[in-house]
Amino acid sequence: MENGRLRRSVKRLHIVSARLVEGLLAGNYRSVFRGPGIEFDQVREYVEEDDARLIDWNVSSRFGSPFTKVFRDERELVLFIMVDLSASMSAPEAERNRRDTALVISSLLALAAIQNNDKVGGAVFTDRIERWVPPKKGRKHALRLMKSLADCAPAGRGSDLALALRASGEALKRRGIVFILSDFKTGAYLKELSYLSRRHDVIAVRIHDPSDGEYPESGLVRLQDPETLEVIVGDGRSTRYKRAYEEHARSARRDWIRECARCGASMLEISTEDDPGTRLVHFFARRSRP
Questions:
Q1: DSSP letter string, 25-63
Q2: Contacts of 97 (CB under 8 A, 6+ apart)
Q3: Does domain 3-28+76-288 have CATH number 3.40.50.410?
Q4: How much of the chain exceeds pLDDT 70, in percent?
Q5: What is the pLDDT of residues 23-44, one digit of tens each?
Q6: Where exactly are the structural domains of the chain?
């Protein structure tokens, strides 16, 4: 990307990220995510108005009278961005593919986090963990994170979302917000997604291309899976073949929606033809409504 175009892109990211923060703050920033984090602060003597479920029975038994636990809001959010850079994210070759869209989304989220003085970190995964950036505060850290994601040349071709979810669940000790940016063309990750969603506010962002659901007009074409490199022959002249292809795409999307809902993860779909900033602003606006 030439320098002039790069500067314009970075400037636009800052403008859109400022809109994201304004939209979040206008709707009460923490109400956008499922409940503010809380952490234990102290115990004090129980009074009649207190919630009996918060009684600390260990302390109460030692002192012979009831004591209740007191919690305080965590004013600092931790944002963690998981980016799928498997081979399917870079196909097809287009002006902006799924990988490009994922990198724009991750950059917007990182900039929005630092403007709100929150910690932000991220991970790049394929069939292995390619990059890992622990959550920290600060503009320089966020820019390093963006550069690390953009410059990553993956060693793997496949996608092991279960591995990435498991690694994130083990590493993120405090409750946070986890964005998963992927085309979700992978399987066997429901157990790990469910576990992560119980401990964190998880937003699954499915990045798709218009070609995902429509088979192009063509004759016999050799189709190659970008991750396994397996080749099959597709017949664009066959109405039956095209219908089967399109139904498979619809079925995969229905399965994704059902599985995310069952695991307790929020969902957002963004096309490579969408404006990612606009889609994020609308998503956060919907979430902030009571």
A1: HHT-GGGGSSS--EEEEEEEE--TTS-GGGB-HHHHHHH
A2: 89, 90, 91, 209, 272
A3: yes
A4: 76
A5: 554 444 455 565 445 556 678 8
A6: 3-28+76-288, 38-73
| DSSP line for the chain | --HHHHHHHHHHHHHHHHHHHHHHHHT-GGGGSSS--EEEEEEEE--TTS-GGGB-HHHHHHHTS-EEEEEEE----EEEEEEE-SGGGG-S-SSS-HHHHHHHHHHHHHHHHHHTT-EEEEEEESSSEEEEEEEE-SHHHHHHHHHHHHH---S--S--HHHHHHHHHHH--S--EEEEEE-----S-HHHHHHHHHHSEEEEEEEE-GGGS-PPS-SEEEEE-TTT--EEEEETT-HHHHHHHHHHHHHHHHHHHHHHHHHT-EEEEEETTS-HHHHHHHHHHHHH--
Give me the pLDDT at residue 254, please: 94
pLDDT in tens, 167-187: 999 999 888 899 999 999 888
Q: What is the mean pLDDT of residues 154-159?
A: 92
- 92 preceded by cis ω (within 30°)? yes
Model confidence at 74: pLDDT above 80: no
